[in-house]
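Appendix B: complex inputs.
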Amino acid sequence: MRKLMLGNEAVARGAYEAGVTVAAAYPGTPSTEITEYIAKYDEIYSEWSPNEKVSMEVAIGASIAGARAICSMKHVGLNVAADPLFTVSYTGVNGGLVIMVADDPGMHSSQNEQDSRFYARSSKVPMLEPSDSQECKDFVKEAFEISEKFDCPVIVRLTTRIAHSQSVVELGEKVDFTLKEYKKNFEKYVMMPAMARKRHVEVERRMAELRDFSNNTSLNRIEWGSKDVGIITSGIAYQYAREAFGDASYLKIGMVHPIPEKLIADFAKEIKTLYVIEELEPFIENQIKKMGIKVIGKELLPVIGEFSSQLIKEKILNVKTEIKVPINEIVPVRPPVMCPGCPHRGLYHVLKKLKLVVSGDIGCYTLGALPPAESMDTCICMGASVSGAHGMEKARGKDFAKKTVAVIGDSTFMHSGITGLIDIVYNKGVSTTIILDNSITGMTGHQHNPTTGYTIKGEPTRKVDMVKLAHAVGVERVRVEDPFDIKAFEKAVKEEIEAEEPSVIIALRPCALLKGVSYEGAQVIRKDRCKMCKLCLSIGCPAIVDKGDCIEINEALCIGCKLCSRLCNFNAIEKAGV
Amino acid sequence: MEKLNIMIVGVGGQGTLLASKVLGNVALKMGYDVKASEVHGMAQRGGSVVTYVKFGKKVYSPLIEKGEADLILGFEQLESLRWIEYLKEGGRMLINEQKINPMPVIIGKAKYPENIIEKIKDNYSNIITIDALKIARECGNIKTVNIVLLGLMAKSIDINKDVWIEVIKETVPQKLLEINLKAFEMGYNY
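Resulting structure:
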């Protein structure tokens, strides 16, 4: 059966067909849908873990216990999970273990543009890279075979355009995989120095074998055409290159670590002019140059951003695309915005008014850095808001802490905010942490987390009580406030930043897009009462429109959260049709 | 047809993904090789979104580049203007007359360009405009804007209407099927 599938969906299908029974992940664009699709298979236990490190450890445990297991994350998630990665490389596996990582060239939804292929090299783990959805499925299945054959985890790397493109997939049968026997084997699985030293020797032996394997596997293939030009490429860049060059010879690398050195050398011998086309870093290129083979790559191509066939044509073939631009008009940008009804809008109204330093974090609320809120001062990585605020306090003293708050979402707090809070308590900090509890993981598209009370499959479960948790780690001042009750919220923030001890405010209001959240419907501005003070515009709601001579509310966008009517000093905003 | 490059552009939350999903599956049913590239995550939150759908005998890159689109379906005026350079010479653009202000306009730091449709029509010959919001409202649910537009797009593509209806039936939840089919018809017969 042929099916149009997102790359991520095809990965899930590959895991299913490979007989995977345990899958764990923390959501992160562009990897999230892998595990959402896996959760649809009843045959697979799946979970949202609190963070990527935990998800990898769950998968490692499942593998050692004999199952085929998979964990999935975005590129920066692999940083979080790097600790177990480097050591599971030594222990190897029992059931096959596949680690999915999705890079984001162009940073569609990320804070950096790192190239995860270097992780494969430095942790000495093989890495595969598919070029379309069919390969996503096939490579994941093959990765499990490699994992068990060579006794190592295998990383499969995607990029945004592979993860979030749909292409045609021929579905296959599910293989019969039975749980492997569990055997206690401390020399393999207990990595103390004496055992690890022996395992490192095994790792080097395995990598030598994998270098041979890479030369012979069908994951790497040559497509002969004109031999005047040869292209060595992988991943999505292969598709762009095919479109840009047409008739040429291609060495398509599906196993990007270790690269097939002999195959590359044989290919290069036949070719007049050789190019390496890869997004981000010259990962393959530098290795080929080290082999003494002359190739052209990053001399012409950028290390920044995504490629396209047009970019390749321009940079390598010097073909300029002539675009007639008959309409000379400034087109305003349309950056992402908080949705109408977003609970964060109330919070930022208060933080902006109080002119606080805001140590920020990763989530929808990062949009609070942009106009009109312009409130967030920093955003580094998951969890850095809390520990960062503590560092600011230690640098500039308690008075600075009285002008500073950390803001972090519920899911991000579970991910790695709690350790920062413990640090504040332990090291005599006084910082104020605001946990934005919108009852879901928002930015990645509504995934459950330990505070929502539901599992990935929507089953009710125990939930972490953040009030009790904050108390338990030693924070005495913990309060729950509604960010739409602006006066009370402002009072709470003022009191907590003044307090010379650690404090936590839980800003509780569910995401407006969440099922079951209903407001009363579109509001309207009564022109007879409106004084055009434009206070309602200051909250930056996309539903409120300045028409020049009046303010209007867009009925198609407004959901009736009434934050604007709570703000209005003239009672000029009310329910439409009253 | 040899190959067709179609772009669907709009604002995050307008339902462009459903339209591209239906289009992709229609092409698949016709036996074509299909690729579609979409936007997820942060950019989706009310930002400018674009989906590329390409089909033909063999498709490599999932992206459509400037001057390559045979057909662009614009869910919103400003977004239609933003992506018009992607239209190839003689290509067709379908524009929904709806306007949604981007944040720089809302906060007064930029102006929403005036007379977008007139300016586009002055320079391009193959432009069709529609007030899909009005039609969706007549249809009984303003959330069917995307299906009205899908209907309009279907009329511009040389594939039998029955195939579209079949795919909509497979894609849309049962309880919303009737209203969506009605919306599709109204767009198709526009």
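Chain A is about 35% helix and 15% strand.
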